[in-house]
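Q&A log
Question type: sequence-to-structure
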Amino acid sequence: MTRTTPPSIDADAMLDQVREWSAINTGTANLEGLARQADALSKAFSVLPGEISLVDPAPVTAIDADGSEFAKPHGKHLVVKVRPTANRRILLTGHMDTVFPADHPFQHQRWLEDGVLNGPGVADMKGGIAVMLHALMAFEQTASAGSLGYDVLINSDEETGSLASAGLIAEMARGKLAALTYEPAALPDGTLAHARGGTGNYSITFSGKSAHAGRNPHEGRNALVAAADLILRLKAMEREDITINPAKLEGGGPNNVVPDHAVLRFNIRPKSTSAMEGFDTELAKVLSAVEREHEVSIHRHGGVTRPPKPIDDKAQKLFDLVRECGAELGQDIRWQSTGGVCDGNNIAACGVPVVDTMGVRGGAIHSADEFLITASLAERAALSARVIERLSNFEF
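Response status: OK
Response body:
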């Protein structure tokens, strides 16, 4: 099937922007790099007829290896509001951060072959941001532009769970007709992610009692043993609709001392809301049992960061609309369910239909092999522009 691109979309300009943005390191913890990226994006999005602001991140805490809670800083989030008083409004979201910190060796771009660019964030998702921007620029040239308003949110912390932007996402999703998120396509052929599972991250701190391992071990309360017991109980809680991954255990010390401290970190992947809620209830009981049986104290930090994203009737209508628009442009749009998560989970939890893989075609994201198929920049911008135009009078 032949792919077509409207003449209003400048593919060369899109590629130039992606390469410029990819050259800025925006690992989630690199506040200086994120500030530079936010400034570059503010200038780029100023071509739209709206107001641009940088919003402070919400406070976020994490647990250190010693069990202490500390504040975790994040970069500012970019917000663009266009025609805020329009009766019909949509939300478009993306993220400026990547998984590559400032000291990561993957910092440069190179051509793998003609039309395939390797570089940090080129697919996930600086390419997606370019798709979003140029789709909106093309939409603003249509006769339908005046009848549809929209908000744009580009957050700084998606790669670590959007804890510093979750409230802002919910606020901006409220009352929206639909939402589009610009994660890369699920497959290099452009396949969209459909239903998604959820995710949650937990840190459990164990405080026991130290003692001499030879003289009086019975007087000690071994925090590592309590943590090990919890690990086995967590794995026993797995079901068909939820997986649990104990990921890191910290604590202990000299061989001749009963360890009085441990921190266990684990991740859950619930496939349904009922699995998510059931786990939380069961975890409380298991923690109480471990605390009682091992005579340790336990502190729990964290929880579900992104709820599962099932596809309801309204969401399916949005997927069908994207497919129809793709067919009009010679693009064969398909979808499949995935275990991955993104801000689309958060948006769907607000009752707003969302398609969250409207970004570029590419692959190998979160690795030094990440690549962008450059022809997809204009291709996917054309698709989004058509979808946005249809949303100006679409009824769910």
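Response note: The chain has nine helices and 18 strands.
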